[in-house]
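Reading a protein record of the kind used here takes only a little practice. The integers have meaning only within a learned vocabulary of local backbone shapes. With that in mind, consider the following protein and its fold in token form:
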Amino acid sequence: MRISMPLQYEGEPKSAVDKVVELEKAGLDAVWVAEAYGFDSPTLMGYLAARTERVEIGAAILPLYSRTPTLVAMTAAGLDNLSDGRAVLGLGASGPQVIEGFHGIPYTKPLARTRETIEICRKVWAREDRLTHDGSVFQLPLPPEQGTGLGKPLKIINHPVRSRIPIYVASLGVKNVAMTAEIADGWLPHLFIPEKADLVWGDSLAKGKARRDPELGDLEISAGGMLAIGEGEDTKKLLDFVRPMIALYVGGMGAKGKNFYNTVARRYGYEEAAEKIQDLYLDGKKDEAAAAVPEEFVELTNMVGPESYVRERVEAFRAAGVTRLNVTPVGENPAALIEKVKGWVS
């Protein structure tokens, strides 16, 4: 098991990168850079490449709708070159709120778009032939009747450092998780409860792995949560900082009947709580929605408490198949936390 962390850049990105530089020295293996509707991910990833020496630099996630597949491939290849082969491409469909609301693009065929984007990226990096693709979402070159008729097959000019940059997919739905297990190098689940993971996703993972190309190797899984070690109520109260985030996803990401995270919470067994959180959040009662998040849900998606307990949580993630423990270290000495947990999992 390796140790990764999300880049906390809501405030000042340069300061967040400074912290990554220090945590790299403590043993951090990878950093994930999100892209929602703030600063773009590739710019920050390039800055990380210049400031670090060893950590892998992953997008978590690049939304599939805001870029063409070839641009995604070019971006990943460029980062891989600048970082000397440390790029990881995390992809995801995001959701209708962001894609249609912020980008103004119809949220259609997310599974087909994901599959075809991965296929095209791998064709671009391999440079075996001029790029062509005939799919239900993308046709390369564009058919003459859809454009000027002047498009022609091309090959990326540069020679990528690697012909197979690792691709992780952020997925939660039954079909999407199965597809991830079939074609991706890794999986990026959110709000992951290790003890309930097999119940919720076991069948999907099994179906996907049954169709998986052996050359891909085993499916990597990156999941985790807040990391804090300490005795007493003060440490446990840190979990309260996670409640608004869970409420945002379970309650506010989407609408009634169209919220992937709410569906996952229900499948975990929190049906009543999921409905209450969503009703409160959509009514504008965000604080009440956060308070309605079950304590068990908060505890099981994170690693907060006495050292012996935190170590048990780490082992629970490992037992659930997590190969990259994704942590947000909280405390006076985040580097010491990373170093300690790295010692456990190595």
